[in-house]
Structures are given as structure tokens and as C-alpha cells.
Write a structure and sequence with these properties.
alpha+beta, four-stranded antiparallel beta sheet, 46% helix, 2 domains
Length: 189
Amino acid sequence: MGIYQYINEKVLGNAGGDLEEVQIFPTYRMKVKKNEVVTRFGQIEDKAYFLISGIMESAIEKDGELKIISFTFPNNFVCSYTSFLLQTPSEIQSKAITDCEIEYFFKEDLEQAYKTSIVANQFGRYVIEQLFISKLKRENDFLTKTAKEAYQDLIKERPEIVQEIPLNKIAKYLGIQPESLSRIRAEIS
């Protein structure tokens, strides 16, 4: 699935419909190698990325240590949203965990589309709503679930995570040490 298919299916609920009406701004594709950084700390984000294949991580830096705040899987958007919206330096870094294929568009093109297209406005609202829901769920899980519960939910929702993401990265995402994750995994087995 690419961006236009995403808009057609998710935003307009029109699976299999004509994609011509959703081509509201130009999109571009690129391949990203494993461990390649797409958005660097301090960079002003001028693109939003749609992950076609692969897995990416977004992390913040605190006291010289990276803390993973999210994983992005295919058919989802990733970017430094605050930087993208406000045009301020990014506080996060987005990096490929595996080789990835990405489709992207420029903020400037989206802003132009907002001026002339109802579909563009629906798309923008839909993506922001999905991001908001995702962030609320992550925050709620972090505050109300144990690391074991969060890990079990993660492998239930995304079973491929254990095969494709190194355990030290999963531990960082859960906010625990790798040894603690090993104990949790042993308890579950």
C-alpha cells in the first residue's frame, strides 16, 4: 500500500476506488538501509514518511542515552510530527531497524493541497487523529501496565516484533533493562 491507496481506503473508505482523485500532492519513494537515520536530532522536518516495508524506530535522547518512544510498521506514517507541524528542530531521531522502503511527501506540498482539496484536509485530520490515539494508548499503557503486561500486549499485537527487532531495543521501548526483559520472556515461556 502506498500513500494514495492509504488515503483512498482509510480516509475515504473507498477500497478499490479510483486513485486519481486522491493524488492531491506529489509523492516520492526511497529505499533506506538498516541503521540509516531518516530524521536526525535538531533537523527541521520538512517531509512526512509512509512506511511501505520494513520497521523503523523513533527515539529521544536523555542523559546521553537513546530511549525508544515508538516502532513504526508498514502502512503507517513516521516523522518528527512536532518538528513537521511547527517547523522547529526535531527532538526525535527516526532510524531504520531493517531495510525499508518509504514513500514521502513535502510539508509545502501538503500545505498547498490543504488550500484546494477537501480530501487533503480529511487526510490531514485522519492522520493526526490516528497519531493522537496511538500516543494516548502508549502513554496510558506506560502509566498503567507492568512491563510484563506491556510486553505481552506488544507480542500479541505484533508477533513479528520478537523476530525482527533486537531484544535490547524492545527493552528500551518498554523502559526496562535487557536482563529484566529476559526474565519476563522466561516467565511467559
